[in-house]
Amino acid sequence: MVYTLKMWIILGLFFSVTASALEPFESIKGVKILRALPGNVVLLNRGLEDGLQRNDHIKLSNDVQGYSSRAICLRASAEASYWKLYRVPYAEAFSQDYEYTISGMADREIPYPQAKLRDIEHEIREPKKKADAGPDPFVVKPDLPEKLTERDLLETLGPEKRRLFTEQALNRDQLRRDLEEYRLSVYASPFVRQTINQGESLRYGFRGGNLGSKYRFLTQFEQQQSKMRDPVTKDSVSTRSTTGQAQFIIHRLSPGISSLSLVNYTSTRFSQLATPKAHWQVGPLGFTWHLFESRNWEYFDLSYVPLYDYRQTETFDQNGAVDVDKQTGFRHGLRLATKTRLNERVALENLLWVRPFQDMATWTVDRKDLNLVADVKLVVNVTEDLFLDYNLVYQRDKLWRTLSNLPETNVINSLNLRYDIDL
């Protein structure tokens, strides 16, 4: 009997230690701060038995003050865990009198300085456990709630797992918290070389967006100025191209799926003609499947978004005057996005877009008109906020050749300096 009891205890400890880590956007309620230590380290009353492990990344919030902090787990035992608080927008939101909700976050949300904590063994003295005084015998709880709602009925069948889909996707409180922090990245490319015009260019732009855990707004604007040799006339000319993009993402509509909505704009002038003069791609709603994620692979995603495609291209008519060719249609937007971290300072990103064109009148898919872009980027973290990027971009656009007598492919090599600013 004693031997059997020991075996059950060993198995229980084994399964506690091997429990899976807190998944991104998974929540645990009723969390208390047991102790605060120097260096913004706190001890929470949840541990391995609750699925928490070292290097987990969470947001803390409470009903009184809302969002209060981000933290990374330094150490975990069966019933408690130590967390390093590294982003504290509201210091007054912390109190041992509050109960907190902790929400899991993906590894890619951890900034570089705090990511280094994952590879350090932390020596932390365990606090002495205090005897549990037990429940207060003078506290009387009502048998029924004052107001019964549909939400209460859903919770009786399974908290958090049977919420209405619209409630999961459109959470106003979460949206408000996600719009509190922003990051702006400004970058410039002192060296850009592309094969389509054998020219060297100067590229500059910015990227910006909020740092929310569920709702993300992303924008990008870029201009490129070039001095090049015209592929047709062989004359030296100057040119300018402009690109813009806006995205709205709702993370984790389900554990493996997020939504994707986007708008793309492109305008490029080669010599005397603009090809395209204006090119709009609008995707009201698409989806991203999160295929794989680990400590080294920050994401491995596959996306699909239907795109309304509107393009204006300048051409010469029979009299040598400039004419504008207009084309509208539908594109199937397929995107493969990956990022792997080679070490704490170096990462490799890959973004592949394949967008076959479909004529809206005949519904014929042109398999040669793919509007393909493959972007491979090597990212080197020089300092906390300064990055050095090397980009290799391959482009394939059938309309360059059919409308403007240009090569249908282009290869761009660029070296970028990028600086991140938290707002």
Name the descriptors.
Lipocalin, 423 residues, Thrombin, subunit H, 22 strands, elongated, disordered N terminus, mainly beta, seven-stranded antiparallel β-sheet, 2 domains, twelve-stranded antiparallel barrel
Looking at the overall shape, the CATH architecture of the largest domain is Beta Barrel
The run of helices and strands is HEEEEEEEHHHHEEEEEEEEEEEEEEHE
The overall average pLDDT, rounded, is: 76
**Strands, total number:** 22
Strand content: over 45%
CATH fold label of the largest domain: Lipocalin
CA radius of gyration is: 27 Å
Amino- and carboxy-terminal Cα gap = 62 Å
Q: Provide the domain count.
A: 2
Annotation field: number of helices: 6
- In CATH, the homologous superfamily of the largest domain goes by the name Autotransporter beta-domain
Helix content: 10-25%
Main β-sheet description: 12 strands, antiparallel, barrel
Major sheet: arrangement of strands: 8-9-10-11-12-14-15-16-17-20-21-22
Short description:
The chain contains six helices and 22 strands. It has 423 residues and is mostly beta strands. 20% of the residues are buried.
What does this structure look like?
The chain contains 6 helices and 22 strands. 20% of the residues are buried. The protein is 11% helix and 52% strand. The protein has 2 domains: 1-121, Rod shape-determining protein MreC, domain 1 (Thrombin, subunit H, Beta Barrel); 177-422, Lipocalin (Beta Barrel), CATH 2.40.128.130. With 423 residues, it is mainly β. The protein is elongated and about 80 Å long. Strand 20 and strand 21 (386-396) form a beta hairpin. The longest helix has 16 residues, at 2-17. It has helices at residues 2-17, 112-115, 150-157, 165-169, 172-178, 398-404; strands at 27-31, 33-37, 41-44, 57-62, 66-76, 81-87, 100-104, 182-194, 199-210, 215-229, 236-254, 257-270, 273-274, 278-292, 297-316, 322-341, 346-354, 357-358, 365-366, 372-381, 386-396, 409-422.
